[in-house]
Each structure stands twice: as C-alpha cells, then as structure tokens.
Design brief:
Length: 269
C-alpha cells in the first residue's frame, strides 16, 4: 500500500539495504551498498562486469549462503526484517523471494511437473491443476503449452523455457522475483516477450533485474541502480560499489554522477 503525501504517493520499501558488503573468503566483492527497492516496481541493477550487481541480487534471498566462504555484512531488510537474522529460515526466504537465472534451467521433467514441484515440496494447499494453470497463465505460457503439459520441458524453445522458469518461480506465490540477466541467452523476439511479461508481473510482484543491456533497463525499469568497479592495482583488488540510484528516466537523461553519465552514454564499460 502506498502512502499519500500531498499530491504524490511514496511506494513502500520492500527491501532496504544498509551498508551491505559481501565477501568471498577474505576478498571484498562489493562494499557498503545502500539501496531501497520499492513495491510493485522493476528495479534494474546495471554496470560493468565484476561490479557486484549479481552479488547484491543474490544477497536479497540468501543465495550467497550456498557459496563456500561467502559472508554478507550490513543489513538486508525485507519489510523491515533482516533476512540474515538468526531466527530467519533461508528456505522460507527463497519461497517469498523467487529467483530466475541467466540461463533457462528447467528440471528434466514434464512441463506440468516443473511447475508442480515447488508447491508440492512446500506442501501448499489447493488444487494442483489450478496452481499449475495459474502459474502458466501468469507467465503468458498457458495458451502455448496447455495441450502438452506432459511433454518434457526440454522440448520447449529457449524463450519458452525461460518463461517456464518464471512460472515455476511464481507458482509458490512469492512476493518478489529476482532476475539475473534473464534475457541474455534469448533472441530478440523472446526478449521482447520476457520484457512484456515483466511489465505485467509488476502489477502483482516486486521485481529486481540484473542486466547488461542498458536499453532493456531503460525500457522496463522504474528505477535503476548503477554500480561500478574500484580497482587497486597495487593490492590487486577489484571492489564493486554503488555509484547512484534514481528513477530510470533520470539515470539515463540527467544522472547526478559523471561516472554514471560516462557509462550510460557508452564512454566506458
């Protein structure tokens, strides 16, 4: 629910990152990120390779926990609760904060079983046929696959497989969908379908996307955060840092920081 202030409305913060740093072993990967993520918006994380945008994305649902030696400091607040709190179950975190990866990764199962797997594993109540249908409708796939639900998912096109992975994510009724370069392995037609789908999904979900495609960020994102890399040649270190974040239109037309302007105009990166 948005809070009215005069003629404007301020959307609720779903995530509030406070001085978030991520280490891999002793190596600092990304340092002191402060970033809000707002409800029912698409937030894009952009920047050159190695700047920490995927690392920050994975910190939002504790996927970094799965990497040996990874450590997150600072606070990742989700609706005001630190997702790294001692009493927080990371499995529950990943239920409400779903993830779609760069390369489509359907299970070696039928289309139907790909969708049903998460709800069945979590013991969700309700008619499974209805859950599967609603997830496929939500990912704009139902009309394409409703007559072949028992077919192996590997028989789908790449774009269909990625929309299947989105359907799999929304089948467990998440609050947030994280997308790590979801279109980088897809052709332009499939990319357009995913972007169109994202704009539909944000009516019901909050979306955070990592993308190397600045045109994509400009097309789909409500807000954009620009990261860059600070290199120390003597120490041999490269640390990601957040330069600025703002409404996407402002980031691409009149950013506050010259580094952002250089990146979005193609002068570096």
């Amino acid at each position: 629910m948005n809070v009215p202030i005069g003629e404007e409305t301020v959307p609720n913060e779903v995530f509030t990152l406070k001085d978030v740093s991520v280490y891999y072993g002793k190596n600092l990967a990304v340092e002191k990120v402060n970033l809000p993520v707002y409800e029912n918006q698409i937030t894009a994380l952009i920047g050159p390779s190695g700047c920490g945008k995927s690392t920050i994305l994975r910190s939002l649902n504790r996927m970094n926990d799965l990497i040996p030696g990874a450590k997150v400091t600072g606070e990742v607040l989700y609706h005001g609760q630190d997702v790294y709190g001692a009493d927080v179950d990371p499995v529950q975190v990943r239920k409400v904060i779903g993830m779609v990866f760069q390369k489509p990764n359907p299970f070696p199962k039928s289309i139907y079983d790909n969708i049903a797997f998460g709800p069945q594993t979590l013991g969700m109540k309700g008619n499974m046929d209805d859950i599967v249908e609603q997830a496929l409708r939500g990912s704009a796939l139902w009309d394409e696959v409703k007559d072949r639900l028992k077919d192996n998912a590997f028989g789908m096109s790449g774009g269909q497989q990625q929309r299947l992975c989105i359907a799999r994510a929304i089948a467990v009724s998440p609050d947030v969908i994280l997308m790590d370069e979801p279109c980088s392995a897809l052709d332009p037609v499939s990319t357009f379908k995913i972007e169109d789908l994202m704009n539909e999904l944000k009516k019901d979900y909050t979306i955070v996307i990592v993308t190397h495609n600045m045109q994509q960020a400009a097309r789909v994102a409500d807000r954009t955060a620009f990261f860059t890399v600070v290199s120390d040649d003597e120490a041999g270190s490269r640390v990601g840092t957040l330069v600025e974040h703002d409404a996407t239109e402002k980031i691409f037309s009149s950013p506050a920081n010259e580094k952002t302007l250089d990146y979005v105009t193609g002068r570096f990166g």
